[in-house]
Amino acid sequence: MNLQRYVVTGLALVLASFGLCATPQQQGLAFVSIRDGHAHIYLRQGSSEQALTSGSSVNTQPAWSADGSELAFSSVRDGQSAIYLMQADGSQLRRLTPSPLWQTAPAWSPDGTAIAYLARDNSKTGVELHLVQLATGETKVLVADGLEKGPDAPVWSADGKQLVFLGANADGKADVWLVQRDGSGLKNISEQTSKRNKAHPAISPDGRYVAYVADMRGHLALFRTDLQTGESVNLTADKPAAYETPRWSADGRQLLFASSRDDPGLTRMDIFVMNADGSAVTNLSQHPHEDYNPHWSADGKQVLFTSLRTGTAQIYRYDMAKQRAERLSVNQSHDMDQVPRPANGQHAASATKGDLSYEK
Question: FRET label pair with 258: which of 98, 121, 122, 195, CA 20 to 30 Å apart?
Fold first, then answer.
């Protein structure tokens, strides 16, 4: 991955730490832009773009409610990071909880009744996984083991009964963990695949599999772990390279991801799709500049991704039927962390943050 890509992705991490046949244009797209000098949440609807946040605050990690009516996001205001909520038009801005903890990485439950997020108490070690019931404001601590977590947002299963998240193990390496909605059943599901770091977990729509990236020392690999049998399969064993952000199609038959597998130097990323068993790998973007962070549109007909092909991070759309990409955002600054607005009843996961670098 090139140096400019690292700068843009690093910027995102720094900012985060402080109808039935509707098209993606109609559905809308939330994203982060620093075009006015501050990180703000924007909404793209059709060809128009609207800033939903303003001022000197730092706003990142937008996450849609399942019905697409609201957004949760991380915001640093007056030196404090907290989770905020607002309507899709930017109205009714309010803070999720009055907690003094440093809050990041919100994730809506599929039924819209709760939000999971990461919380740090500076008087303690580690990061906790919290859950807030929106109707009552009650906060439940799901995981508090004194170990680091994130930076990726936790990911819900489609039935809302469990979550997966990135968390450190006893050796300080990031693993993929599974926990039930009530905080029970905490389990490390990735420890057998590699003793090194993991990243970007995603649960299949049927709740059976978790896809994620693992550091294999010298390269990265995309794994799929069966939650029923515990079996883990390296889906990219035939092509050692860099891999990022696997995301399941709505029917669970395909995985979308970014990879350097077609780059002779194994550094520049393209956008790929493959069958859930690792077969039929197809390079969608095939561009000499860096493409990364792909998301399926709500109807599955298009892929939204970030690209450095213009010199700054900009958002592009790839049409699966027409097999071509077009630029959506047009400015000289950086637009990133795009999250397509979901169709009614379809859960939208928070944008995934950061790179996983392998150990040599």
Answer: 195
What are 320-335's pLDDT values in tens digits? 999 999 999 999 999 9
The identity of residue 105, as a single letter, is A
Map out the domains of the chain as residue ranges: 3-340
- Report pTM: 0.90
* Residue keyed to tokens 């140096």: 3
CA torsion through residues 165, 170, 171, 172, sign: positive
What digits encode the pLDDT tens for the residues 11-25? Answer: 555 444 443 233 433
Tokens of 302: 């298009």
Q: What do you get for the CA distance between the two ends of the chain, in Å?
A: 15
| Summary count for the chain: helices (H), strands (E) | 2, 28
Which strands, in side-by-side order, build the sheet including 335-340? 48-51, 40-45, 29-33, 335-340
- Amino acid letter, residue 47: S
Locate 96 and state its tokens. Answer: 């999720």
